Amino acid sequence: MSLADVLWRVPSMQMAWRSLGRNRVRTGLAALGIIIGVVAIASLGMASVALQQQAQSDLGSLANEVTVSPGQDITTDGITDDQLSRIQGIAADVDVVPQKSNQTRLTSRSGQGARVSVTGVTQASVLYNVSEGESPERLRSGALLSETTATQLGLEIGDPVEYDGRQYRIRGFIASDQQGFFGGQGELVLPISALSDQRNYDSVTIVAENGDESTEIANALDSQFNTEDEQVLRVSSSMDVQDGISSFLDTLSLALLGVGSISLIVASISILNVMLMSIIERRGEIGVLRAVGIRRGEVLRMILAEAAFLGGIGGVVGAGVSLAVGLLLFQLLAGDPVQVFGWESSQYLVYGFGFAVVASVLSGLYPAWKAANDPPVESLRG
Hints:
Elements: H1 3-8, H2 11-22, H3 24-59, E1 65-70, H4 81-90, E2 95-107, E3 113-120, H5 124-127, E4 130-133, E5 143-146, H6 147-153, E6 160-163, E7 166-174, E8 186-190, E9 203-207, H7 211-225, E10 233-237, H8 238-281, H9 283-291, H10 296-333, H11 343-373, H12 376-381
Parallel strand pairs: 3-8, 5-7
Antiparallel strand pairs: 1-9, 1-10, 2-3, 2-9, 4-7, 5-8, 6-7
């Protein structure tokens, strides 16, 4: 015997189901409120998961980098050669890339201009991937330019760009996905000799084997150069940035779920109203049931079963609609709709369904208590 057969043998279940069937419009409207609430909770939860996975994917390749820049207590105008030597001594087995930076304005042959940041570096291939051309291991001549800036100015490989009165031939275009999660200003990469008028370095990038090693190097540099009261060099690991973004997205997820929960609470109030109206309309019917011997407990279970059926129907339909919305969201945000079936995302379907049933049953408690405790004589009088 199946569980459905067992439940169907309970008279209160049969009466609840028939009552919902007699008032299909009212039942449909009450279930619609639950559906909207479930879709709001589940869709917003899955949207936050899709955003988090996309952010982790974008930042994943940067998790092994450590960036060193002048701290607030440094006495020079940048990182000195002596400090660079000490950094290279601590990070002896990985790539250490010192950089000098500036800004300039590039102009195309047609006169169109674009402001870009200028980076002087030698080990260009360590930091930059190119979508076209080459990223030389040791950049001694020529230049790399952001792909978006080159498109904006109509520049091609081999075209000259001018900086500080000297011309450099473009050797490669920096891939657009290296402009960060939020995009940003275009970048011109030149040999470090192009910024020889700057004595010290503006930053040093260390590329470790993995995130754990980058964290160890960052901690070692911080303890070597800084104290509790003095920050000579500011050391930041990409893992710190990734953790910060993950924390922000977790907070955003909770806020979105809060908004979705408000929708379901409003739906629960609607169910409470529907159940109370139903009790008033069926007061005579309930009085007859009590007069022929139906006990208070049976009436209580019947009303609660109606509320549970409403929650179950709304929860199932709402979860189905939410799954369709989730497939669309993951296709648009993450590019892979199948990821919606992972537990990290699909758990919100379960939460939405469970919340719908619990909220519906709670909404039915007062109408059920009121119907069960109404004296039969008073109910028959109407």
